[in-house]
TrEMBL record:
GO terms for cellular component: plasma membrane. It is found in: Membrane. It holds the Pfam family Cation_efflux. Its main location: membrane. It comes from Dyadobacter fermentans (strain ATCC 700827 / DSM 18053 / CIP 107007 / KCTC 52180 / NS114). This is Cation diffusion facilitator family transporter. Residues 13-207 form the Cation efflux protein transmembrane domain. The lineage of its organism: Bacteria, Pseudomonadati, Bacteroidota, Cytophagia, Cytophagales. The chain crosses the membrane at residues 12-34, 46-62, 83-102, 114-136, 157-179.
Length: 337
């Protein structure tokens, strides 16, 4: 399943790469027909699509490679780097577009054949939207930031092209040539924002920033499948590197259990988490022995060493489970209240 998923990701990125080359050629031909600065800006931004798709293909290929001695956690982090690289290229392109738009506002030049050029731009909108939507959908399924970033880039390219078509229509209706440069300026600012968002997300991933949505998903699975013998879970951490998910935590179990029973329980715990994920999931669980304070929220029936009656459950959420301490402190607070 994992091999097929990686092949699908590579095929989608290759499709994006080939389509980007063809569509970039069409946009430059549209600029040749019209001499429109806005169309030129769109064409220049499409060069970024080509470079980014090529790098994204390499990153998806590399992230699919198995872990090795030099990369014990796999190669999935390269997808964060790919998204950041794409974002940086977008920002560079936006700077060039803004500068060129300002120059054309100060020294306008004639525009021609807008109707013919718009036909080519409309075609690129349809193709970019279809491929971008597919990349976004499959990228989210596979937890691939490289696919999602490339899909968002193509979708933003489609949106900007729609704005471009509207500006062309306004020029044809009003005859105001300066609308072309204003549209190009706005397009450049939009690209700068889009690129900065990609860079920000990339840096967060490379720095192992907490993914609250991912944590909530893992905790939801634990709550849905909670067993009485899982006395508590703490020091929970989850990181997504490409399609690979890494989870580690401490699981509190009865201190009097034999090692074989502890091993079997941890194995079941890991399998429940793995079954809820797409792609490879690597889990490290540290077994902690219970202490007498855990009795207040422990649901094990007929416990031979129980020192306190059960009082109440403790709700498992990200705020509690990510702490590096057993949950009996939470129980004590609740009981006092």
């Amino acid at each position: 399943m994992q091999i097929n998923q990686n092949k699908l990701k590579q095929r989608l990125i290759m499709l994006s790469f080939v389509a980007s080359i063809l569509l970039t050629g069409l946009k430059f031909f549209a600029f040749y027909l019209t001499s429109s600065n806005a169309i030129l800006s769109d064409a220049l931004e499409s060069i970024i699509n080509v470079i980014a798709s090529g790098f994204a293909f390499y990153s998806v290929y590399l992230s699919s490679q198995p872990k090795d001695r030099n990369h014990p956690y796999g190669h999935g982090k390269v997808e964060f780097f790919s998204a950041g690289f794409e974002g940086a290229l977008i920002i560079i392109a936006s700077i060039f577009i803004v500068v060129e738009a300002i120059n054309r506002l100060m020294d306008p030049s004639p525009i021609q054949n807008l109707a013919q050029g718009s036909v080519f731009i409309l075609f690129t909108i349809l193709v970019n939207t279809a491929i971008g939507y597919k990349l976004l959908t499959e990228g989210r399924k596979a937890n691939s930031l490289a696919l999602v970033a490339d899909g968002k880039h193509l979708m933003s390219d489609s949106i900007s092209s729609v704005v471009l078509i509207l500006s062309v229509g306004l020029i044809m209706l009003t005859g105001y040539v300066w609308i072309d440069s204003v549209a190009s300026l706005l397009f450049g600012l939009f690209l700068a924002y889009s690129g900065s968002q990609l860079v920000s997300k990339s840096v967060a991933g490379l720095m192992d920033a907490s993914d609250e949505l991912l944590l909530d998903k893992v905790i939801h699975v634990l709550n849905e499948n909670k067993k009485d013998e899982w006395i508590d879970v703490h020091n929970l951490r989850a990181q997504q590197y490409g399609s690979d998910l890494h989870i580690d935590c401490h699981l509190t179990l009865p201190y009097y259990w034999e090692l074989q029973k502890v091993h079997e329980t941890i194995h079941d715990f890991e399998n429940i988490l793995k079954a809820s994920q797409v792609g490879e999931t690597e889990i490290f669980v540290h077994a902690d022995p219970c202490v007498y304070q855990c009795c207040y929220f422990c649901r094990i029936d007929n416990c031979p060493v129980r020192q306190h009656a059960f009082v109440q459950d403790i709700e498992w959420d990200a705020g509690k489970l990510t702490k590096n301490e057993k949950l009996y402190r939470e129980a004590r607070i609740n009981i006092q209240e």
